Amino acid sequence: MTVRLRAPRRIAAMASMGALALTLAACGGTTKDSSSGSEGGPAAGNATANPNAPLKKGLKIAFLPKQVNNPYETIVDKAGIEAAKEYGGEAKEVGPSDASASSQVSYINTLVQQGHDAILIAANDENAVCGPLKSAMSKNVKIVAYDSDTAKDCRNLFINQASSEDIGRSQIKLISEQLDGKGEIAILSATANATNQNTWIKFMEDELKKPEYAGLKLVKTVYGDDDDQKSFQQTQGLLQAHPNLKGIISPTTVGIAAAARYISGSQYKGKVALTGLGTPNQMRQFIKDGTVDQFALWNPKDLGYLASYAAASLASGQITGAEGEKFKVGRLGERTIGKDGEVILGPPTVFDDKNIDQFNF
Ligand code: RAM
Question: Does the Cβ of 99 fall within 6 Å of ligand 1?
Fold first, then answer.
């Protein structure tokens, strides 16, 4: 049976990228002395924010992604490093080549020893990195989780790419549209402990309980560990083990690209739908050759840029991480800290053959 790839339809929650305020008001006031220990957000102490504090010059900021050889993470971190140049800071990226939590721990300790003012981390496991992060905060190093959160008390802020709930639920809507609401589906995720993927999967499972998705059956979730080869093999294994599989959701840029590569060269092309989260540059050929109808992502450059400004604002005492505090984010305008120290970038874009050529990342 051939999967009917329907005309692209936008999902309300993901419909627009939203116009962003571009006003950057000048900051004035005095530099805040942030000398006490754990401060801000869920890890807050008694610090008070000084919204008029200027961003300090020469801040040392480090990005610790899930892994360094993931094209998505490279885009995010590069944009964060560029942002630091705008505010007169020094930023770098370090991290493991595999997306494992244990390998992030030693990097945290080294970054603290090197005297960084802030560490940004995309956590491979929400708890495994907590000890060293708490120890860093006790030495007044600001901790910003981005992309993939830590437990709430192990960081000052979490910069989320979009509402986790919207990301998860919209993945089910996308696959359902492509399958006319019927058939077996599977999920190809990243690592088993990745906070972001697990949160999205939880919302996907919940969305599937709705009556309108009664015809969809989630038969298996597998983990490609954000490793290209492993993700490729897991896709092959899924399709062999589940001959009635009609669709795969891969909420990872590494996973969806590997799955698309496998499907495009197999008997399943045009028969098994694939959607998820991918970068337009990695997915373009699979949209063009008809392997993939639609997938989604936020702008990774904006995520890195926002996270970088958030780290600088914390390290300058402009914000502490408490709900309701506002800070300025260069070309992205002003952002407000939400509940549990979360700052949301904005709704993702759905990519298809009509719009993919407008994007280059
Ligand atoms: C991969 C990583 C990352 C996730 C994206 C969508 O690159 O797992 O954490 O946000 O996919």
Answer: no
How much is the average pLDDT of 140-158? Answer: 98
Per-residue model confidence (pLDDT) at position 42: 55
26 Cα: distance to centroid of ligand 1 (angstroms): 34
Given 280, 297, 314, the domain boundary residue is: 297
Quick: pLDDT tens for 92-131. Answer: 999 999 998 788 999 999 999 999 999 999 999 999 999 9
Answer whether residue 9 is part of any domain. no
- Which pLDDT does position 29 carry in this prediction? 29
Range of the domain at 194: 164-297
Q: State whether the beta carbon of 148 lies less than 6 angstroms from ligand 1.
A: yes
pTM: 0.89
190 lines ligand 1 (CB under 6 A): yes
The predicted model gives 233-255 an average pLDDT of 98
Q: Do 217 and 333 belong together in one domain? A: no
C-alpha span between 213 and 229 (Å, rounded): 32
Q: How far apart are CA 271 and CA 173, in angstroms?
A: 19
d(CA 48, CA 322): 9
Nearest to 147 by CA among 130, 127, 129, 162: 162
pLDDT of residue 4: 42
Residue nearest to atom 4 of ligand 1 (CA): 252
Counting atoms of ligand 1 from 1, which one is nearest the CA of 197?
8
Q: What b/e sequence results for 54-70 when a residue is b if at least 16 CB atoms lie within 10 Å of its CB, and e otherwise?
A: bbbeebbbbbbbbbbbb
Could you please report the per-residue DSSP string of 132-151? HHHHHHHTT-EEEEESS---
Do 289 and 171 reside in the same domain of the chain? yes
Q: How many CB atoms lie within 10 A of CB 278?
A: 28
Report the nearest atom of ligand 1 relative to the CA of 161.
10
On whether both 108 and 176 belong to a single domain, the answer is no
* Ligand 1 atom nearest 99 alpha carbon: 8
Q: State how many domains the chain has.
A: 2
> What pLDDT was estimated at residue 101?
78
Q: Do 180 and 151 belong to one domain? A: no
CA 66 to ligand 1: nearest atom: 9
